[in-house]
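Q: Fold this one first, please.
A: Sequence and structure below.
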Amino acid sequence: MNAPNDIAMKNDEVLRVELEVFKREHRDLDDAITALEATGTFDQLTLRRLKKKKLGLKDRIRIIEDRLYPDIIA
């Protein structure tokens, strides 16, 4: 997936909706990871995959936020 080019072709409203969806997914993954760790008996591979997916979402969120809210030095 070529995220920067994909994002460049979308309008701001679509990006705002995607941003909210990605933030919700990120929170859900965080809750799932916390619940999995709380059980004490969890599969390390599953945990690692969830964390990797969460990091991927964090990167997508950052890219979209940079596009929507550029850091302009005044």
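Q: Good. Now the second chain.
A: Here it is, same layout.
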Amino acid sequence: MKRPFLDRVWLGFSIGLAAVLLGAGLRYASPYAASWDEVDFARALERYDLLAMQPHFPGYPYFVLGGMAVHAAIANPAKALSILNVLVLYSAVFPIVWLLARHMPRSAALWAALSVFSSSYVLLAAARPMSDGAALGVLWWYIWAVEWARRRMTWPAQLWPSALFSILMGIRLSYAPFAAALLILWHEDWKTHRRLGRVAASLLAAAAFQFVWVAAVAATEGGLWPFFKLGWAFVAGHFSEWGGTAATSPLPFSERLYRFVVHNFVWTGIASQHVSLLSAYAAIGAIAWRTGRFQLPRPLVVSALLYALWALFGQNIDKPRHLLPLVHIALVFVWGRLLAAPRTWRFVLAAAVVMLQSTIGIGLLREQAKTPPAVYQLADDLRDKRQPFVVYTWEETRVLDYLNVPFPHKDVLHFSFFLQDKENYRHAAIYMTNHVVQGFEAQGIDVSRHVRKMKTYRSSLLADPVYGTITLYEWVDGAVR
């Protein structure tokens, strides 16, 4: 068969499969706000209030604004945010194709992009009411704009990446390490033109773009000073109490590094915890490494390395979704190298892997949308339980409050507070979740003889590794060792 005919076949196949993936993402976008942060975002669509953590600092104004627009058509706020994520993420097919098309035929670039976007774990993590999916989509538009500006080396061209980076920060501030791409662009501009005024103007323009969303959010909090005070309190808590960073985690560094690379990046991010995908990518990675010549743009590589350090030390190691940018970048590298020199057998190999991970990904999406999260199951079960009783939880209380459950529930972090507070419920049954029990044990309190297991609720641990399993216990009074 002639090459043009084969190209048309692959083009039609890739467009058809892309439509299927987009349709599955929209249909099975998660309708549940199942974590503290997801509740923050869902409530922000109804009332934007940083002090009430709707959402939490820094406010994510562009993400919330987009969610409000979708919410006008989709009644469920969590579903509206999930759909927004899917739409923005899949728009990034265009910049990825444009980036790859400089190194390979456009048909191969489209197929490589499809191979990236069919990633099972990314499909699952992006279709939730967090800002990860939208941020990942805007990130690729930003990287493309940086490369576009690098080729032109004109000052007006630098406004596009600066504007897109501002949008990225207004969606997900933790992607700040990717500012390195802008710094490299400005450094190259300085080497080309040797004009300090151009660099200063670029810095001022970038700062002005950032000020747009910062000032808008600050206005809702009474000004810049209250906004920065709130931000300082949030950042201090993130690094000293609940953020799960290297500063607060009891994990040894070697174990943290192992979980980061092996469990979060390879086993979860690349393989979606499926042995078949792990084996497939091991083979593809080996072939691509030995035969490919494609290289990622230097600004993207430097930014990715900086983000990897930030994710390792400054993010919660229990949440693999923080590695989504690294997963996507790695997949662009692998598929770019494999398909940079188009061969029919490589397309066939790519098609087999894409079909495999698409099937897995759509199955995960469907399970996430059809199976209520564990905390929802807990809430539904307790609605029918005879009162009086009280439930002590950790972050689950935020979701229970969002669900407007008719029974009392409280978050409890310290055993001393629990002992004092439970005296207010002497004539009520006292329940607690496994996270409370584990928290007491971490404080050196053995409560094993004073709790009785009631029921375990399960949902997808891949979608929610922290609260995908919840066990309810009943407290039995007595002396505690």
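Q: Anything worth noting on the second one?
A: The beta strands are 389-393, 409-411, 429-433, 451-458, 469-475.
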